[in-house]
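pipeline: protein-struct stage 2 | run 1193 | Endoglucanase
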Amino acid sequence: MGKFGIAVIVCFFFCIFAEASVVVTATGEHRYPWAPLDLDGDGQIEWILEGNLWNVYSADGQVTMVWDDKTLAVSIRLADIVQEQPSGWVNGYPEIWYGAKVWNTLGPALDGPVPLPQKLRDLRDISVTVEYEVRRLDPHLPYNLCLETWLTRDTERGRAVRSDEVEIMIWLDYQNMRGAGTLVGQTTVGGRVYDVWYEERCGNGGWEYFAFVPKDPAPYGTATIWWGPFIQEAMRYSCRSSWPDLYFTSIELGSEFGAPHYLRRNDLDWEVRSFVISCGQRNILGVETQ
């Protein structure tokens, strides 16, 4: 896998140097299959694929994730879904991720430019560039395609997120779905206008939740997202203290889909053709670093 530096930017690519396909298949009986991606054969993990049907108690069909030397292709074909927690709303979040995800002990996937977890006070701003395409097979299916991270108080893994911690989502595409909680404002980042959705206490753990939802969802294209402006905007609305001491743990890309009223059939396809992580010069909280 190629790693290179240009000025103060280091880039990390997942879409080249593949030697074989990797397939992950999730079902109602096997909800959390996963596979590590060691793209350059050095024994270190660049990415993790995870089926993550966290809210499916049972279902017919499957979710298939196929990575090859060009793309990650995700095919969702589920029917007659029974949710584990209807209050959780969506059925799952099949994803590819980098870092040290708090919810499990998989990986970690750290063969890249950003050492994670890392406190926000010590972290340079992170850019993610994604080339993707969503195929909307059902015009009525609620879904999104979004980036996500979890900001935690420590580096412990394999646990639920706690009430003094934070979830941040940045949506790329969606239909028939909105963020959780309440619409609290709008912000413009990189020329794109986002609604800001906020939930003070989300999930069983009561963590703080933010979703940045673009006014112009795009089912395909190339998007570059700098995390810093979104984190700084979330701080403006937050009820949690000591943000500089929160750990940025992971960079996740996946799709939430379905709803308590939409369980008979969930069909959706999406592809990721490149996924690039870069580090900038400024601190992610907007402070210059040396």
